[in-house]
Each structure stands twice: as C-alpha cells, then as structure tokens.
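User: I'm curious whether this sequence folds into something compact or stays loose and floppy. Could you predict its structure so I can see for myself?
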Amino acid sequence: DMKRFLDGQMPTFIEHINGLQAFSSYEAKAGRNGLPRALLFTSKAQTSSLTKYLSIEFRRRLLLAEIYPNKNNNRLMEKYGISNLPALIVIPPPGEDGKITDPIRYEKEDFSRIKLQNFLSKHALKKPVLAKKTEKKEDNKDKKEKLKTEPKVEL
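Assistant: Here's the prediction. I'll summarize afterward.
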C-alpha cells in the first residue's frame, strides 16, 4: 500500500547496532563529532517512520541508534538496565573536563512524536556539527592552483 511505500522511501540517518563491535564504532563516531547519543531499544522488526523523522530532525545534533533485542545486544541491554521495550536513553557527550555523565532515560510511557521531540531537543546540540573538510580536498585545490600559476611550456 501507499503508506508502506512512502515509509520505505523516507531517508534515514539511524545507526543500526547489532553487537558490541557495531556499538563501539557508533561510540567512536559520536565521540569524533562530539555528539550526544540516543539509544532506542525497540522490539519492532522495521524502523518506524517516527524514528526516521527524528533521525532527520536531529541530524548532526544527536546520533540516534536503534537496538533490537537479540543475543548480540544482550550485553548492551544489561549495561543500560533495559527490561521493558521500547526504551530510550540519551548519553550526553563528555564535558570539557572529560567527565562522563550518566545516561538519561525517557521515563514516560507515551512515545508520541511531540513528547519524543521535546525530550530529544533538550539533549541535542543547539547547532549542527558540520563535517570536517578532509586534507585530500585541500590538496586537490592546491594542485589546481599550482597548475594555473605555472607557466605552460610548449615544445
């Protein structure tokens, strides 16, 4: 039907975590960019359109991950004390002093768009973190400028 088709076409910026190795790369990505982390523990088989919307809304201000209850993720569920699904946890980035703060749990039963958006907006960065320019792009610009300034020699 039309809704299912549109949900499938909707862009998403969600990190799907399946195991500790995927979680450590998710943590590294969040740390590299200084982003707060939001962990959504869900029992649904597919990513909901609400979750996709939130990933778009908070893109580059918060890193959203979806974690399914399976044997690969049991340690994560134990680490954060997750027994009932769905559950949402926000982990703020370390402070300037390097101090790690405790995870903040979404305590309400209602997982509506407005309530989730309000909760996540309290913990997301105010301004988006833009991608850092790579050195390769700068090197290419330097090469092009050198080619323009060098005199051409005809044989």
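Summary: Strands lie at 15-17, 37-41, 63-67, 87-91, 104-105. The helical segments are 2-9, 20-33, 49-57, 74-79, 113-123, 135-149.
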